[in-house]
Amino acid sequence: MFAKRVKNAPRSFTRKILDVIGERDIISFAGGLPDESLFPHELIKNEVNNMLENMPKSMYQYSQSKGAVELRRELAKNYANSHEDQILITTGSQQGLDILCKAFINTGDTIIVEAPSYLAALNLFALYEANIVEVELTSRGVNTTQLEELFATKKPKFFYTIPTFQNPTGWSWSGECKKEVARLARKYSVIIIEDSPYNALKYEDADELDFEELIPELSVTLGTFSKTLVPDFRIGWMRADEKFLKVFQVMKENTDLLSPKFFQRIIAKMMKDGKLALHVETLKEKYKEKRDTMAKALEIEFGKTIEYETPKGGMFFWIKFDDDIDTMKLFDKVIKEGVAYVPGCVFFKGSKSSSYARLNFTNATLKEIKRGIKRLKKAFLAREI
Ligand SMILES: Cc1ncc(COP(=O)(O)O)c(C=O)c1O
Predict the structure, then answer these.
(1) pTM, whole model, 2 decimals?
(2) Residue of 113, 161, 195 best suited for mutating to test ligand 1, as the one with most atoms within 8 Å of CB
(3) Which fold has domain 4-40+277-384?
(4) What is the mean pLDDT of residues 220-232?
């Protein structure tokens, strides 16, 4: 009955975990959720009331699929080489990923991803029947020797990367790595897709160079307000050279015509008068405290028995147990102790077994972080019983 692609579309493991957590008293480090106590409700309420008072009725009308010009103009200011006509507003950056697939992927086309990578992107690429090829990732960037070999031999449609405060690792590439990848992309004419949902959540110095600066003509940037404002507005964007953007616009029109502009205009105003930037400062302060609390709790409970690097930004720790521990197998014990992580295997193509786990630190309270890491230690100690 269903199309062939349906069997290529597994339900995200993270969603399944979220269902289990919903049923029980579990401290969750699993989802990539922001802290809802920090959603700026009063600010949004004021802006909405203002907008309703002052907007013309024409604002409810169908309009350009590119999105509200006020917002595109504000976004363009954050880029070195781009203007408002190089920006397309999308329904979250997840729609940006879907548009990329529609625009570039025929069945069997090769694309390259970091190993590990963002689960929902991997699932989507599989849905479009791409031939997904992985390149090794370390905490300083991708293995560029391996990447060159892949660029030269596989003729990929694009290389999808999250170089800053990555999901799932929290790692950030060095500037040298980015420059080398830009050089390779030019040499082999490969499009770089830079997914950047976490860039603004920066807690200490990290390299800020982006591919828009290094290789604007061959890079596409995806962005979102899900992590800096609220996920529910479902507002993201794509930034690209106009030759790409025109095609993306047609792909979007064929999907949903346009994204609602009401909240786009509200965000544009918040950006223009600096209120969004102020809110992000608050988030950074609070999230840094949570990150430090998790780092300290991991240090106290696990010492040298696990490996990890404290992320300089974003929302995740990527911790590694001994090689003989499969975090998927440990998962039942972890849940039994009343805590949840995402087993590392789901972030790799083919879900190969992994001794890594992803821990989110933005959603839990400081108390829950301390208690949750203690529970994780208990599950770890109970693994051989
Ligand atoms: C790397 C990455 N890309 C895209 C998204 C999707 O975000 P949005 O809410 O904008 O669709 C996420 C969400 O967690 C993400 O981590």
Answers:
(1) 0.96
(2) 195
(3) Aspartate Aminotransferase, domain 1 (3.90.1150)
(4) 98
